[in-house]
Amino acid sequence: MSIPTADHPATLETTTTRWHARSTSISDTVHQLALIWSGAARESQTAPASATERADAHGRATPDEGRDVRVRMRTSVLTLVVVAGRPEIAERAMSIVNALASRHPSRAIVLSPGDPDGPTTFDAHIYAACHLSALSGAEVCTEEILVKTGGELSQHLATVVAPLLIHDLPVVLWWPGDPPFASRHFRDLAAASDGLLVDSGSFRDDGSGGLRGMSAVAEDGHSVHDIGWMRLSLWRELLAGLFDHPLLTGELGNARQLRLDFARPGSAVRISKAACFAGWLAAMLNWRIDKPLRADSDSDRISGAFRHGRKVIPVEFRPVRAGLGPSMQTAGSLVRVELELAHGRVVTRARVTRQADHLLATADWNGAQVARRAGRLEPFEEAPFLAESLDRTAHDPIFEMALDRAVELTASL
Question: How sure is the predictor about 106, in pLDDT bands with cuts at 50, 70 and 90?
């Protein structure tokens, strides 16, 4: 595990105090947390206080000799619950949570469920840390809890989480991979949460089922944040920016066709990102669904249509063979978007195309290029998107409108 413990203290931050304890029951985990913070509060009133805590033979926190500390403050602003279906996902999640702890102080609970048909087990590692604030002189304290379960507890994760939540603080549920939206343990955890963070780029099959699952969670009143949607920000910004050109400002009402190419490196045809992008454009331009998407049995193309007033606007999704570079790690990543518009004899084509490390947006007006923009792609990492979703825990109305359109567009798949 990449989280530093008392036996392996942090070397990058010399102003950090850490504790580590271990527990084999939910009630004892609550007790250990209380011991850590009551001890930390007492130490803040005396000097010298510990710089690092070590675990004794029973896994309970014990102090070492160390430096003086200032007033300690637990500054959690939310509880982050992560469900990690595989050990490597749990390790990655703990690493990301630890890296963001100083910016987003929270109680992070990482659940690593094991075999639901095996014996009932509970094993928790509790990591607490206080970071010295250069501004206030106080120590900002956070905690991360890694819980491994087996048997009956793996089937009732909400029961594990409930006693560990901090009263009156919002709860954000982060479910990496493909959440089982229809399952009881997902519904129970979602019911105990205020917000959901997922990645539609990781949904199984074509992704349409996951879109419907996300939409159902949003309809229940939860704020939903999708990493797949956030990765489309630059695509949306560049396409919209092309129409700032004086020749193009009045052309958006003249759309004639929309085409989206997405990566198909293997056999997987995943359209969730493309559907969300098309849904965004439809929502912004007040298009309605005329024909939901259907796969062409004679080709790889998937086609449907929008409607704007009396005008029908065909939409076509095309899977393309594309290598996966540092900014495109999953099937379904957008490769190219082209919006064709026509008004009288004037034909405009606005395109955004993925390059090696950037996106290139161009607009042609009757065959002559009149606008060109570019934006650098960020590395394929989860941490910035988790940070963004924790910064903005409220509903995202633009995303919810795009999601509604995407669900309608993919209803027949």
Answer: confident
Q: Classify burial at 298, counting beta carbons within 10 Å of its beta carbon; exposed 0-12, middle 13-18, buried 19 or more.
A: exposed
Query: Which residues lie closer than 8 Å to 408 by C-beta, 6 or more apart?
Result: 289, 292
Task: Give first-to-last CA distance, the chain, whole Å.
Answer: 41
* Cα 137 to Cα 116: distance, rounded to the nearest angstrom: 47
Q: CA-to-CA distance for 401 and 194, rounded, in angstroms?
A: 19
CB 112 within 8 A of CB 148: yes
- Reading phi first (left if > 0) and then psi (alpha if -120 to 50, else beta), residue 34 is in alpha
- For the cut 80, the answer to whether the pLDDT of residue 105 exceeds it is no
User: Residue for token digits 């924790």?
Assistant: 390
Q: Given phi > 0 = left and psi -120 to 50 = alpha, else beta, which region is 175? A: beta
Is residue 365 within 8 A of residue 346, CB to CB? The reply is yes
Residue 63 has pLDDT above 60, yes or no: no
The DSSP-derived string for 248-278 is TTT-GGGEEEEEEEEE-SSS----HHHHHHH
Q: What is the pTM of this model?
A: 0.86
**Residue 240, SS3 per DSSP:** helix
287: its two tokens: 């298009």
pLDDT given for residue 325 in this prediction: 60
Residue 380 — pLDDT band, cuts 50, 70, 90? confident
Q: Are 262 and 335 in contact (CB under 8 A)?
A: yes
Whether CATH 3.30.360 fits 230-409: yes
Tokens of 181: 């939206």
- Can you read off the two tokens belonging to residue 324? 């996966």
User: Which is more confident, 267 or 23?
Assistant: 23
Give, in order, the Cα–Cα distances in Å from 201 to each of 198, 270, 331, 384.
9, 8, 7, 16
- In this predicted structure, the answer to whether residue 110 has a pLDDT above a threshold of 60 is yes
Q: In the prediction, which pLDDT does 291 show?
A: 97
For residues 176 and 83, what is the distance between their CA atoms, to the nearest angstrom? 7
Q: Are strands 139-150 and 72-74 parallel, antiparallel or unpaired?
A: parallel
d(CA 278, CA 405): 8
* CA-closest candidate to residue 301, choices 266, 334, 331, 261: 261
For 64-138, strand residue ranges (E) read: 72-74, 79-83, 107-113, 121-132
